[in-house]
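Because discrete structure vocabularies remain unfamiliar, we turn briefly to a single example record, giving the amino acid sequence and backbone structure tokens:
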Amino acid sequence: MALLGVVVFWAMHVAFTRQLDATVADEVQTLVAEYRSDGGSELADAIAQRELSRSPGRLLYAVFAPNGRRIYGSLKTSRPSLGVHDIAFNDPSEGADAARALAIDLSPNERLVVAADREWIEQIDQTILIVFAMGFLAVCLLGFAGALLFGSYLQRRLRSISDGAVAIIGGDIRGRMPVGPRQDEFDQLAITLNRMLERIEGLLKNLRQVSTDIAHDLRSPLTRLRNRLEQGSSATETQNCQPLIEEAITRVDDVLALFSSILRLSEVESGETRRFFAPVDLSALAHDLFESYAPPIRDSGRTLISSIEPHVTIAGDRELIGQACANLLENAQLHTPPGTIIRLSLVAAGQHVCLQVNDNGPGVGKADRGRMIERFKRLDASRNTPGHGLGLSLANAVAALHGGRLLFRDSQPGLSATFEFPASTPGRLSHSDAPE
């Protein structure tokens, strides 16, 4: 506001001064023309007539001799030099005053001076200064009041978020940030923080569940291992201890495999492996899986068939996708009766790429399908089969890592497990015409 006031004041002051100079210059040209046409006596009469005028914007006149003596005219000032000047003169009503003057030589013995009182410019300057001073004061007051109101609003909103955070730090993880009806930036921030808190709460619940499940799953094998070691400690012959030692090693391997699966699942869910994504020929991967699993599935009394679309490529982690699909094939083999037909298929159509394992076995009830991807969750039908209930959790995490999802559907009969990925998102699954 202050800078604007300086600029406007200076611009208006210069404009009015130039206007005053132009008025004085026009008057000088008129008087010079009269002097040259009618002589000095007519110039004196013209000046006298002009000085009789009572108009507010009247000009001041004088003609000076070389020695500084005023020949005619009423302007009381010293003989100025040639050109445009700010001069001081004696105003009969106000005393010493300032004027804007133009001096020009009519002849070697006569110098004409026409001046305009600067009083009206000074009044305009004073008016501008007063107006801008009042405006500047008003802006300062409004700015100060606005700053107080805005600061109070910011403090109130931030305090509400801070109080919510303090409550959460105190242990109330179910607390949430307050969201107002205005849906302003603070409300949007509160919504985002609430989503983060919901995610954290879900992770904590998952952590508690995992801790409980790990303790539950480890209790039985460790208890059996301890019992067998106690039996071995009471054995007297070396040959009697050897089977016990081998069984103990097997049970320890099971525990180590459980922890390895947990660590692998945590690594996938953290998203750290995404930086190692590279183009993967999904069709070739599906063919490798089919060739690897067809013989053991056939030996178990089941049949594995394939329907694989060629030249489907993805950007991802080949090892993770292969392990996830292998988990689906192993589940289909373990949880279906002999004579079941298992199909491995790959298709890219529209906006999705689907890698699917389905069978015509007994299937899974609709109520149990959503529970299949939970950690350590094992359905009643599979409790007597080996495993820890982490295979489908890992498969679901791999699907989410690649921007997709793992879906379970009823095949009527049987179960269909499908990896569904968006084909159009860069860096995720896509269908391209790879060279043969």
Summary: The chain has three domains: 2-124, 185-270, 276-422. The radius of gyration is 49 Å. The chain has a mean pLDDT of 79. Residues 148 and 261 are 58 Å apart (CA to CA).
